Amino acid sequence: MLAMEKLLRPITIAVVLCTLLCIAISADSEEQFHPDKARFFCDSSIVYFPHGKVGLIFDTAECINCRQSLPEWRFIGDLKVDSIIYIDSTLPLTEENQIADIEINSPGLRRILENSNAYKIAKSFPEAVPEDTLFWDSVRVKWHILPDISKYYTIRFDEAVEMDSVINWLRSVPDIRKIEKIWIPPEPE
Fold first, then answer.
1. H-type alpha helices, the chain
2. What residue spans define the domains of the chain?
């Protein structure tokens, strides 16, 4: 038991110091978060990208009568899609490269993306899959359940937005469980 306490003491001190450092950094200034990005966690039924496809880039230019002049496969709700992001590339949307299997099933999320001039929505961790949540620890000789990072998505806006308002809007969407601003690490001195 004494050996365990000796092992845990430096870890506890390190955790406390890291926490204090994070608090000091967060108290330093408001300019530490991206003004045009937010990350959220949701059920996979709200946003669905099939394997290999990890995001969408929207055409945010104003287009009067776009719905009438463009084919329906160019849109998700009222969002005009410009490109599909794959794990290793980004391809422009074409008739052969459609978004038929990509889904944004939440009307609330689609409305937020439309009203806040969203430029892009993508998986935050493109390579993550839901099956990656079980991990065998050979040192402790037991299984651990890891967080499912495959359900984190990042939204990027066409321009700086009032991020606190966007985060409050996202909180009103059912099944979105965690919303956060994206921190900008300080430049090394």
1. 2-28, 66-69, 107-115, 163-171
2. 38-121+152-183
Burial tier of 55 (Cβ tally within 10 Å: 0-12, 13-18, 19+): buried
Q: On the CB side of 32, how many CA atoms lie within 13 Å of its CA? A: 14
Residues 183 and 154: beta-carbon distance below 8 Å: no
Q: Which two tokens stand for residue 161?
A: 């937005």
pLDDT digit string, tens, across residues 153-168: 999 998 778 888 889 9
CA 22 to chain centre: 21
∠ CA(54), CA(175), CA(158), 5° rounding?
50
pLDDT tens digit sequence for 37-56: 999 998 767 898 887 899 99
Q: Which residue has the tokens 């990005």?
A: 37
Cα–Cα dist 103/43, whole Å: 12
Specify whether the CB–CB gap between 152 and 123 falls below 8 A: yes
The answer to whether 38 and 163 have CB atoms below 8 angstroms apart is: yes
Place of tokens 């919303």: 179
* Alpha carbon distance 111, 106 (integer Å): 9
Indicate whether this model's pTM tops 0.85.
no
Mapped onto helix, strand or coil, the DSSP state of residue 58 is strand
